[in-house]
């Protein structure tokens, strides 16, 4: 099979850049595609195209229903290619095919459809209350911001992309999207579908390239009015600092260290599988994963032995095989980083009870593999409990009281997701209300839904993706007042001007 080539998409044209690179499968090391690599020049061209499309084009003046219809058209096109795109995503970033089908593509389609629905109902302009005693009429408008720079990671690319470009385009903005260099293909595929659906040139531009210089240049570009970023907290900090010069609007979706609290009455038939799902979904590379499992000391041994029995059944292997549970991690560098966290944890006093290494066998020779790993006797001061590992590594911590569990859960700079397991919903909700997180799951995990906002508190981010307010994040409020008095009576001029001398 010949290797496909992906140029950049700028101003409605597929353009090659001076540099290009081989995109390799994290599972096998094979070349999946060759990709044009954009740099400063391509980002400049893309931003100029997006700016011109915003200022001189028709998109922001296109009726919202038409913009919504175009999003629905794209959602339908993506749905029609579901299996093909899921396989492409799996080949590109190694996430197992069951997950790329349901979560990456399926949820992205639902998200686009939901945004279209919101755009149809959204009040882009409405009359406010009459202003007395003048009288005047107030009008409230929601206007697009202009050029949005969207920067996304490799782990769940399409969903993160539609969370951003869905509301951005629905609201009438134009976009420059910079996907991650390790997984740019779905961004370029989605651009093909927007082009086929008739999106005007320049409204969506996609340039794959490295974080430095392409991402950094886009994030600091003076003509970009908003940066919508998903990625690591360290890069997010830099983007927020860099936004000050031009007072950019910024949305940040950053890292997490999700605490997952098993209360002493949790139903382990559900909670054990649920806790492994929380940590190992997406090959252990999910920002809102439950990576710190907090168990009551009285039930610790029972929980650990049941966890280990279940971990032993996890099937590693070809992520394209629907029978596979766990695929590779994204790069060799990331594999080494994960393994070094596991080593460090043991030096810090944690005990390795499952995994911790690279699986053996011919199918694991060329990819970036890490066994599903469980560490017990972890304490919350250890780096394994404080830092984002971003791999299939579960840290188990014991607690003595629910208050202590909540304290441990909240003792982190992150605040993206958290979870509680209990047979008593009232008890679970009481704990859920005390957890510092943007999303708390009771007796489940990864319940990501278009109708609910996604995002974090503390250093996990700023703003939210999706949910009913998604369009608010991509519009600016404008207030217009229209005088209806027809004269000077009741006006405030007298505050400054004395009455005219007759
Ligand atoms: P990363 O921050 O290194 O990269 C993310 C994106 O930013 C990529 O497109 C990258 O090219 C770009 N980038 C890198 N350096 C940049 C710079 N200086 N300026 C501008 N852009 C730059 O993140 P990663 O390690 O590739 O992705 C995993 C991280 O993403 C994890 O921390 C994970 O928690 C986070 N994440 C968060 C969410 C969320 O919604 N909260 C979702 C998925 C992933």
How would you explain this protein's 3D organization?
There is one protein chain. By secondary structure, the protein is an alpha/beta fold. The protein has 2 domains: 5-254 and 456-480, Aldehyde Dehydrogenase, Chain A, domain 1 (3-Layer(aba) Sandwich), CATH 3.40.605.10; 259-442, Aldehyde Dehydrogenase, Chain A, domain 2 (3-Layer(aba) Sandwich). 36% of the residues lie in helices and 21% in strands. The protein has 14 helices and 21 strands. The strands form 5 sheets. The chain has a 7-stranded mixed β-sheet with strand order 15-16-17-14-13-18-19, sandwiched between helices. A hairpin with a 2-residue loop joins strand 2 and strand 3. The longest helix is centred in the first third of the chain and has 25 residues, at 97-121. The termini are far apart. The structure holds nicotinamide-adenine-dinucleotide. The site of nicotinamide-adenine-dinucleotide (NAD) has 32 residues, from helix 7 and helix 8.
Task: Offer a concise description of the structure.
This protein has helices at 40-56, 64-80, 82-93, 97-121, 157-170, 185-196, 211-220, 233-242, 268-280, 300-311, 332-347, 383-386, 402-410, 425-434, and strands at residues 5-6, 8-10, 13-15, 19-24, 31-37, 125-131, 136-144, 147-151, 174-178, 204-206, 226-230, 249-253, 258-262, 290-296, 351-354, 373-376, 393-399, 417-421, 439-442, 461-462, 475-483. The chain has 14 helices and 21 strands.
């Amino acid at each position: 099979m010949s290797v496909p080539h992906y140029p950049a998409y700028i101003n409605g044209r597929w353009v090659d850049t001076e540099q290009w690179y081989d995109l390799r499968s994290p599972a096998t090391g094979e070349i999946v595609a060759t990709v044009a690599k954009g740099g400063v020049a391509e980002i400049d061209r893309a931003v100029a195209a997006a700016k011109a499309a915003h200022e001189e084009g028709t998109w922001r003046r296109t009726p919202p229903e038409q913009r919504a219809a175009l999003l629905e058209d794209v959602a339908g096109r993506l749905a029609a290619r579901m299996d093909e795109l899921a396989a492409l995503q799996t080949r590109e970033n190694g996430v197992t095919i069951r997950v790329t089908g349901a979560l990456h593509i399926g949820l992205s389609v639902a998200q686009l459809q939901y945004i279209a629905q919101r755009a149809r109902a959204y009040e882009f302009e409405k009359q406010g209350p009459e202003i007395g005693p003048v009288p005047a009429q107030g009008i409230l408008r929601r206007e697009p911001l202009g050029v949005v720079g969207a920067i996304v990671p490799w782990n769940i690319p399409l969903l993160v992309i539609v969370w951003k470009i869905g509301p951005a385009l629905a609201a009438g903005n134009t976009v420059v999207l910079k996907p991650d260099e390790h997984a740019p293909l779905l961004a370029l595929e989605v651009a093909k579908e927007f082009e086929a659906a008739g999106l005007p040139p320049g409204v969506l531009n996609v340039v794959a390239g490295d974080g430095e210089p392409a991402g950094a240049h886009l994030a600091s570009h003076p003509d970009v009015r908003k940066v919508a970023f998903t990625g690591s907290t360290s890069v997010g900090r830099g983007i927020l600092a860099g936004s000050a010069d031009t007072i950019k609007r910024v949305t940040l979706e950053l890292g997490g260290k999700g605490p997952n609290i098993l209360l002493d009455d949790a139903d382990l038939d559900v909670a054990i599988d649920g806790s492994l799902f929380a940590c190992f979904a997406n090959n252990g590379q999910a920002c809102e994963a439950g990576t710190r499992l907090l168990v009551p000391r009285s039930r610790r041994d029972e929980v650990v032995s049941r966890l280990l029995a279940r971990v032993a059944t996890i099937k590693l292997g070809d992520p394209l095989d629907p029978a596979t549970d766990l695929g590779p991690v994204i790069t060799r560098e990331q594999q080494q980083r994960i393994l070094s966290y596991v080593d460090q944890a043991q030096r810090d006093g944690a005990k390795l009870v499952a995994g911790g290494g690279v699986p053996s066998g011919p199918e694991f020779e060329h990819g970036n593999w890490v066994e599903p790993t469980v560490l017990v006797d972890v304490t919350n001061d250890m780096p394994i409990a404080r830092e984002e590992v971003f791999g299939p590594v579960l840290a188990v911590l014991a607690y003595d009281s629910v208050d202590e569990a909540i304290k441990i859960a909240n003792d982190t700079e992150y605040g993206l997701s958290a979870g509680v397991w209990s047979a008593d919903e009232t008890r679970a909700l009481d704990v859920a209300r005390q957890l510092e997180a943007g999303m708390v799951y009771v007796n489940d995990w990864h319940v990501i839904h278009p109708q609910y906002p996604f995002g974090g508190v503390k250093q996990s981010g700023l703003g939210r993706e999706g949910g009913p307010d998604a369009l608010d994040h991509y519009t600016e409020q404008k207030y217009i007042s229209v005088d209806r008095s027809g004269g000077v009576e009741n006006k405030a001029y007298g505050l400054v001007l004395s009455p005219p001398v007759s």
